[in-house]
Amino acid sequence: MATHCYDFGKIVPLFALEGECVCVQPLGNGLINDTFKVTTMPEGTPDYVLQRINTSVFRDVPLMQDNILRITSHIRAKLQERGADDIGRRTLTVVPARDGALFAGDGDGGCWRMTEFIPRTKTLSEVTPESAYLTGKAFGDFQKMLSDLPGGPLGATIPDFHNMSFRLRQLHDAVERDVAGRLSGVRDILDEILSREGEMLRAEDLHRRGLLPKRITHCDTKVDNMLFDGDGSFLCVIDLDTTMPGFVLSDFGDFIRTAANTGAEDDRDLGRVGLDMDIFRSFSKGYIESAEAFLTPVEMENLPFGAQMMTYMQAVRFLTDYLDGDSYYKTAYPGHNLQRTRAQLAMLRSIDMHLGEMEEFIKSLNR
Ligand code: GN1
Ligand code: MG
């Protein structure tokens, strides 16, 4: 978590919040931005989520905030049309700065934004088949709701974010530079990764040949980015920073990579890491139920590949950052990015073993 000291007495009043701030505490475990919960008084006024945006990762904050406002306004309108209840808990509510902007500078180089805190929610460290099914349904629905977003395509907040050839190029550059002198210790892992470069470019190949479309996708569907109600039912997806045009395979795959992992993303015990087929089946069933109306046969049959692709891409990104001296992801201990890489590769091997079974299951859903 953030170790910096921020002057919240100065930062919080930049935003148009209700009530009086009584407490600011670190929130969540994101690897990029610094996130805080702002508690207010009196009882009945909303609490807030305050974030310091990592501007070396998100270089175009106005574009990102504009995207988020467009996405949340559109989803809110759709939910209203459907007569949904509890709309304030089913999508994020952006809180503007007092000057009307969607973010605020603190005068010390920091860039901040705020949303309403959604009360009485939990994130799921232990996903059950039931919650995976509901999450799959909700995710298909999220993509469907955004399919007619007005105002033209969303801008890319991070260009080439899930572009595999770009990520591999970054790895090759990091290997060449070896700035932290760590290359000699990772030769075995690097060889394993590089031996699979070609097969992992399949999505971009299909796209180039006009066979795989880009749609609006979330691009960070890890399970930590989903809020559930007290009873385990899915409420909403958060962290919309990277919602932009991409392949549905990314979103499907990133959920499987994280939620269907019997271990943690950075597990120190690789014996715990592996694919949970029950979670895979439940999520796939829910996802296809709401997404089959728009998914093409090529998208459908490549969903299991999406799980391989995203797990592999995460291994590539963690190893790149390890070689670069840990400059991108927050780390909790020396070698954390290397452990993350190893855990992703263990997950990938487990997905590989189940690939045939996964493909059969997706086929069986394809009515
Ligand atoms: C980062 O900050 P967080 O935890 O939401 C990363 C994702 C990775 C994820 C791995 C902008 O997301 O792409 O999948 O870590 N976000 C960015 O846990 O790079
Ligand atoms: Mg994120």
Could you characterize the architecture of this molecule?
The strands form 3 sheets. Strands 1, 2, 3, 4, 5 and 6 form a 6-stranded antiparallel β-sheet that branches. Strands 7-9-10 form a 3-stranded antiparallel β-sheet. By secondary structure, it is of the alpha+beta class. It starts with 7 loop residues before the first helix and ends with a helix. The radius of gyration is 20 Å and the shape is globular. The mean pLDDT is 95. β1 (20-26) and β2 form a beta hairpin. It contains 11 helices and 11 strands. Bound molecules: 2-acetamido-2-deoxy-1-O-phosphono-alpha-D-glucopyranose (GN1) and magnesium ion (MG). Residues 30-32, 57, 220, 222, 239, 242, 265, 314 line the site of 2-acetamido-2-deoxy-1-O-phosphono-alpha-D-glucopyranose. 2-acetamido-2-deoxy-1-O-phosphono-alpha-D-glucopyranose is lined by residues 30-32, 57, 220, 222, 239, 242, 265, 314.
Fold topology:
Elements: H1 8-11, E1 20-26, E2 34-41, E3 48-52, H2 61-81, E4 94-95, E5 104-105, E6 111-116, E7 121-122, H3 129-145, H4 164-177, H5 187-194, H6 202-208, E8 215-217, E9 226-229, E10 234-237, E11 244-246, H7 248-259, H8 277-291, H9 297-301, H10 303-323, H11 336-365
Helix pairs in contact: 3-7, 3-8, 4-10, 7-10, 8-11, 10-11
